[in-house]
Design goal:
The complex is a heterodimer of chains A (403) and B (307).
Chain A lengths: L1 H17 L5 E7 L4 H19 L8 E7 L4 H13 L5 E4 L3 H14 L3 E3 L5 H8 L8 E3 L4 H18 L7 E7 L2 H13 L7 E7 L10 H10 L3 E5 L2 H13 L6 E4 L18 E4 L10 H14 L7 H19 L4 H9 L3 E2 L5 E2 L16 E6 L2 E6 L17
Parallel strand pairs in A: 1-2, 1-3, 3-4, 4-5, 6-7, 6-8, 8-9, 9-10
Antiparallel strand pairs in A: 10-13, 11-12, 13-14
Chain B lengths: L1 H23 L1 H27 L7 H19 L7 H23 L4 H23 L14 E4 L2 E4 L3 H20 L1 H11 L1 H6 L4 H26 L8 H14 L4 H19 L8 H22 L1
Antiparallel strand pairs in B: 1-2
The chains are: A alpha/beta (403), B mainly alpha (307).
Chain lengths: 403, 307
C-alpha cells in the first residue's frame, strides 16, 4: 500500500512538473475565414500537438492561442493587444495579408516579443514600417518579400532559358487585377523585366472575379496582340479557370501561360485546361516524392484534418512553430534577447523543400525564405520545375495550342 | 408622335454606333453585348422585386450565390451538367424565396425603408457567412467544355458562350412582360405594385401577391445561379458585387422599367468594353459605371423638373 502511495505521489509530481512553470504560449494571428488562415492555423496546431506529444519544450507544453484578424488592420492590432495583455503570450506567430500585418506592427514594437511572421510580402508597406535593425530585430519574416519573389522569378526564368535556349522569355505580358496586389505586381514586374535587362514588357489590368469582375477579354485581346513569350497573370484563384476558358475561346496560347494567384481553385488540376499552366509557389504535393519532411507533413495533415493542404501557408505555419520551438529550446527561455540570438542560428529542414536560415534583407535583419519556385501543372499535380535541385519534372514548352 | 420620333432617333443612333463599332472595334460590340446580357439577366429579377414589392433586396446577389452553390454540389454529386439543373434550381430557389419572404421580408414591409435595408443586408451577411463557415473561402468552378466555344472570322476569334446571357435576359424581359400584362396573377401584381391599398380594396390578396412575385424573382435568380456556374468560379462573397451593380442598373433604368434595365445594361456593357479597348482609358472602365449612373439620374431629374 505504501509502495502504491509512493508511486502515485511520484506520478503526480512528474505530471505536475510539466505544468510547473505553465505552458509556453504562442499567440497565433490569422484571417480565419480565408483558406490560408484556416489551414495555416490548423497546421500550426498540428505542429504544437506533435511537439507536445514528443515531450514539449524545456519540460513545458506549448499552447497555441489563435486570434482572428479578419484580414483587417484594426482587428489585427486589437488581436495583438488581446494576446499580449489578456492571454500574456510569450511569442507571436502567423500573418498573411500585408494590410493586416501593417496594423500589427506598432503593437508588436510596443510589446517587443519575438514574432515569427508567415505572410506579408509587400515590402514598401510592411518592411518599411518595421524599419531597420535593431528596432525590428524581434521580427522574423519567413515569407519572401515581393522583391525577393521577383528576383527569384527572374533568376528562375534566366536559368531555364540558359539550360534550354529554345525557351523564349524576351517578351513578357502581365495581366494584373486592378487592386493593390495587381498594381504592385505590375510595378515590380516592370522593374524586374525591364528593357535594360533585355526584356520587352507590356501589361493590362482586369477586374478580378473576386471583386465582381471576371471579364478578361479586353486584357487577353491586348495580350494576344502583343504576342508574348511569357503571359503572366496576377489575380486570385477565382480568376484561374474563367481566364483559361476565355483564352481558349479566343485561341490565345502564348509560349508560357503563367499564373501567380495566392492559391488555386479546388480541383483545378482536374480541369482539362490545367495541363501545362505554369505557376509560382513554395510547396506542392509532388515534393513528397523526394522530400521526407514534406511527405511527413502532408501525411500527418491529411490524417488529422481529412483534407489536403490547399496552399503553401499550411507548411509555412507548421515550419514557423518548429522554428520557434527549436529556438526556445536552444535559448532555454522565451525572453526576447536570448531567443533572438538562438533563432539567428536556425537551420530548419522544412517541408517547403529548403533549409530555412535567417539573413538580412533590404531593411530588416531576419529574413527567412527568399525564393519562390517555378512550378507547372502536369497530370493534375503541381510539379516543381525550378530550382533544378528540387525539380520533380521538366517544363513542357511551349504551352500547347488550343484544340 | 414625339415619343415615336424620339424612339426612331434613338434606334438610328444605336444602329449607327453599332455599325461603326463593327467596322472599327468589333470586339467592343461582341463583348459589350455579352457583358450587357450578363448584367441584365442578374438585375431583372431585382427590378421586379423593387418595382412591385417596393423593397431593395440587398441579399439579391447572395440568393444567386446560394443557388450556385446548391447547383454545384448537386451537379457534382449527381454528375450532371448545370444546364440540366436550371429548372430544378429555379423551383427550389422559388420555394426558399417564398419561405424567406414569409418569415422575414413580409414582417418588415410596413417598417421604415432603413429597417428593410438593414434586414435584407442582414440576410446577405447571414447567407455569405453561413456558406463561409461550411465551405470556407475555397473557390469552386465546374470545368465545362462548351463554355470555350468560339467563332473565328478572319483574324478575329472570340468566345460565343456568353451570348447565352443575352438570350436569357431577353427571355426574362419578355417572359415577365407577358406574365405582368397577360396573366391574372401578373395583372394583380401590377395593380399591387401601383397601388397596394386600391388593390386590396378590390379584393386582391396583397401579401400573397408580394410572396408570389418574390418567389418568381427568386426562381429567375435561381436559374441565373445555375447559369452563373458556367461563367464564373463561386465563393462566399461572389454574389455581393452583383447586388450593387443590379441596383445601379435599376436606378439608371428607373424603378419598374424592366426593358430599361436591358437598355441600361447595353449602354454600360458597351461603354465598359470601349474604354477597356484602349490603353489610355482601360482604368476608366470601372468608374464609367458610376459616371453613367450619375449622368442618367441627373438628366432624368432635370427632365422631370422641366416637365
Amino acid at each position: 500500500m505504501k509502495r502504491m502511495m509512493f508511486a502515485l505521489a511520484v506520478l503526480v509530481m512528474l505530471a505536475g512538473s510539466a505544468y510547473a512553470q505553465g505552458t509556453i504560449k504562442l499567440g497565433g494571428i490569422w484571417t480565419l475565414a480565408d483558406i490560408t488562415g484556416k489551414q495555416g492555423s490548423a497546421a500550426a496546431r498540428m505542429a504544437v500537438d506533435e511537439i507536445n506529444a514528443a515531450g514539449g519544450v524545456l519540460g513545458r507544453k506549448l499552447e497555441l492561442i489563435v486570434a482572428d484578424d479578419e484580414g483587417k488592420a484594426d482587428k489585427a492590432a486589437a488581436a495583438v493587444e488581446k494576446l499580449a495583455t489578456v492571454d500574456k503570450v510569450d511569442v507571436f506567430i502567423g500573418g498573411m495579408a500585408s494590410g493586416a500585418e501593417l496594423g500589427k506592427i506598432p503593437a508588436f514594437k510596443k510589446y517587443d516579443k519575438v514574432v515569427m511572421s508567415t505572410g506579408a510580402a509587400a515590402s514598401t508597406v510592411v518592411e518599411k514600417a518595421l524599419g531597420p535593425s535593431p528596432g525590428s530585430d524581434f521580427y522574423f519574416h519567413l515569407h519572401p518579400w515581393d522583391y525577393n519573389q521577383g528576383a527569384s522569378y527572374l533568376e528562375g526564368w534566366t536559368a531555364i532559358n540558359k539550360k534550354d535556349p529554345n525557351i523564349k522569355i524576351a517578351r513578357v505580358f502581365l495581366g494584373y487585377e486592378d487592386g493593390a496586389f495587381g498594381q504592385s505586381s505590375w510595378v515590380a514586374t516592370k522593374t524586374l523585366f525591364s528593357p535594360s535587362m533585355g526584356f520587352t514588357i507590356d501589361g493590362a489590368s482586369f477586374k478580378s472575379a473576386a471583386f465582381g469582375g471576371g471579364d478578361y477579354t479586353a486584357m487577353l485581346e491586348a495580350a494576344k496582340a502583343f504576342k508574348p513569350d511569357i503571359f503572366l497573370w496576377a489575380g486570385y484563384d477565382a480568376d484561374a479557370l474563367p481566364m483559361l476558358e476565355q483564352a481558349k475561346a479566343m485561341k490565345f496560347s502564348p509560349g508560357i501561360f503563367l499564373g501567380a494567384p495566392p492559391g488555386w481553385p479546388q480541383n483545378f488540376g482536374d480541369s482539362k485546361l490545367s495541363p501545362n499552366v505554369t505557376l509560382y509557389g513554395m510547396w506542392s504535393t509532388a515534393m513528397n516524392k523526394n522530400n521526407p519532411a514534406s511527405d511527413k507533413f502532408y501525411k500527418n495533415y491529411v490524417a488529422k484534418f481529412k483534407e489536403e493542404p490547399a496552399t503553401y501557408f499550411a507548411p509555412l505555419a507548421y515550419s514557423a512553430v518548429y522554428i520557434l520551438a527549436d529556438g526556445i529550446k536552444a535559448a532555454g527561455t522565451t525572453e526576447t534577447a536570448p531567443l533572438i540570438k538562438a533563432l539567428e542560428a536556425t537551420k530548419y529542414a522544412s517541408p517547403l523543400g529548403e533549409t530555412i536560415t535567417f539573413s538580412p534583407s533590404m531593411i530588416i535583419k531576419h529574413q527567412g525564405i527568399t525564393r519562390q519556385k517555378i512550378l507547372q501543372w502536369q497530370n493534375g499535380e503541381q510539379q516543381v520545375i525550378w530550382p533544378f535541385e528540387a525539380a520533380t519534372a521538366t517544363l513542357v514548352y511551349p504551352f500547347p495550342a488550343w484544340k | 408622335m414625339a415619343i415615336q420620333r424620339r424612339t426612331a432617333i434613338t434606334a438610328a443612333i444605336s444602329i449607327a454606333v453599332a455599325i461603326v463599332l463593327i467596322l472599327w472595334k468589333p470586339t467592343v460590340l461582341i463583348y459589350g453585348l455579352q457583358a450587357a446580357g450578363f448584367y441584365a439577366a442578374i438585375a431583372i429579377p431585382m427590378g421586379l422585386v423593387l418595382g412591385i414589392v417596393h423593397i431593395v433586396n440587398l441579399s439579391h446577389g447572395e440568393f444567386m450565390m446560394l443557388a450556385s452553390y446548391a447547383t454545384y454540389f448537386a451537379c457534382t454529386a449527381l454528375g450532371v451538367d448545370p444546364l440540366l439543373a436550371i429548372i430544378p434550381t429555379a423551383i427550389v430557389t422559388a420555394i426558399f424565396g417564398w419561405v424567406v419572404f414569409q418569415l422575414t421580408i413580409r414582417r418588415a414591409l410596413k417598417a421604415p425603408e432603413l429597417n428593410q435595408l438593414i434586414m435584407t443586408y442582414g440576410l446577405a451577411i447571414a447567407f455569405s457567412q453561413g456558406i463561409n463557415l461550411i465551405f470556407s473561402t475555397k473557390t469552386y468552378k465546374m470545368p465545362l467544355d462548351y463554355v470555350t466555344a468560339s467563332m473565328t472570322i478572319g483574324d478575329l476569334s472570340f468566345g460565343i458562350w456568353s451570348f447565352v446571357f443575352v438570350g436569357v435576359a431577353i427571355i426574362f424581359m419578355y417572359g415577365l412582360q407577358f406574365f405582368l400584362t397577360k396573366t391574372t396573377t401578373g395583372k394583380a401584381a401590377m395593380a399591387v405594385g401601383q397601388n397596394p391599398k386600391g388593390a386590396a380594396i378590390v379584393g386582391i390578396n396583397v401579401y400573397r401577391t408580394y410572396g408570389i412575385v418574390f418567389a418568381l424573382a427568386l426562381a429567375l435568380v435561381g436559374a441565373m445561379g445555375a447559369l452563373f456556374l458556367t461563367k464564373s468560379a463561386i465563393f462566399p462573397s461572389v454574389g455581393s458585387p452583383f447586388t450593387m451593380k443590379s441596383f445601379c442598373l435599376i436606378a439608371m433604368a428607373g424603378v419598374g422599367n424592366i426593358p430599361g434595365i436591358l437598355s441600361a445594361s447595353v449602354l454600360l456593357g458597351v461603354t465598359e468594353q470601349f474604354l477597356r479597348a484602349f490603353r489610355g482609358t482601360r482604368d476608366w472602365a470601372e468608374i464609367v459605371f458610376f459616371i453613367l449612373i450619375i449622368g442618367v439620374i441627373l438628366a432624368r431629374s432635370y427632365k422631370g423638373r422641366k416637365a
